[in-house]
Amino acid sequence: MPQVTLTVNGKRHTVAVEGRTLLVEVLREKLGLTGTHIGCDTSQCGACVVHVNGDSVKSCTMLALQAEGAEVTTIEGLAKPDGTLHPMQEMFREHHALQCGYCTPGMVMSAIDLVAKHPEGLTEREIREGLDGNLCRCTGYHNIVKAVAAAWPLMHQKAMPQAAE
Amino acid sequence: MDAWLRPTSLADALAALAAGPRVILAGGTDLYPSHVARPLPGPILDITALPDLRRIEAHPGYWRIPCLATWSDVIGADLPALFDGLRAAARQVGGVQVQNAGTVIGNLCNASPAADGIPNLLALDATVELASRAGTRHLGVADFVQGNRRTARRPDELAVALRIPRPAGPALGVFEKLGARRYLVISITMVAVVAEFDPAGRIRRARVAVGACGPRALRLPGLEAALAGRRPEPDLVTPDLAPLAPIDDVRASAGYRLQATEELLRRALGALGTSRARAA
User: Fold this and answer.
1) What pTM does this model have?
2) Rounded distance, CA A110 to CA A14, Å?
3) Which residues in chain A are contacts of B96 at CB distance < 8 A?
4) Which of A153, B40, B70, B194 has its CA 20 to 30 A from that of B274?
């Protein structure tokens, strides 16, 4: 069986996989990182979003062998070892940006990528559009958008130039 | 034959294809969702480790979009207004994560009748660079896409890049798409227009392509001829939709598709006029 070597949350792993094994299956079943969820299985809902080499991707569409040599970050890799949450996680808690929590790991991973890639600031509309690959059936998105806007100044360590209206 | 190859040079990739047919895998955003809980469709050639095939580059006579350029790369590239339609399509393909993984050429080679990239590539007059051990050939996108998920790519060939010719004068692109909702949706119909303008703001030449209204996206030569020499306005012409052959399916009826296409054509011409006025 072929093998894939990848770094997940800073730790190197070599895992035997089939050609059809998905990245999300490696994360959940081989590495026990069950924080990454599977929702739709067809790349629509975004529950499975992780970062691969700094970009957010849907791990239910990526075949594991394509992650050879890649740096992967999952929801488990965000908090510091002492338990301090990532600012995005903190703001999701602060603004109650979740109800059932199923979409939350993917939502947080997408939101971090979105904020990191917009150092010029984000409007409410841009936040909503930036999260269009993540579905939430509980919140109506309102508090998620608030949390993302609130995390921007924390992640960039300055006031947001273009305030989300 | 190895079930999975991930070559790190183009020569190795072409050698693998010369040895026998393989499923070519780039972003994977079409391959996996169509094979959920089923075996992969054949031995895989994963091209994502090939070097120097990601950056979109401007050359003297053309732009080159290589086979690992993603939709996000199109959005982020420094490209002129000629590419506004392709850029708009890039922003509407899947969500951000699909745009980060999926490639423009993968969208073309997958050759879905509803591929958002293809009408734009037709309107841009793009050609496909096909490499094999036997050499390189260039095919226009209209000749490359032969039908529903059928292309002219030989099994030993790899589509390594797209070339988009530089127009002689100022040119603008627009893209209009209709889906059942705004995001994460497969198109019911879509329209891409690229127009080159003369100094007086009249259309010198237009290329108009419609997708999801037949087994493959098509240009509308009748409408293109009617647009030449005129200023773009929504109610300019009653388009001749005869080349289109839409089907009834779960997403829409054929009649609705044609009606919506006419409306999208009007909107596209209107948008072209607006962005032309802004550019002038």
Assistant:
1) 0.92
2) 26
3) 56, 110, 113-114, 130-133
4) B70
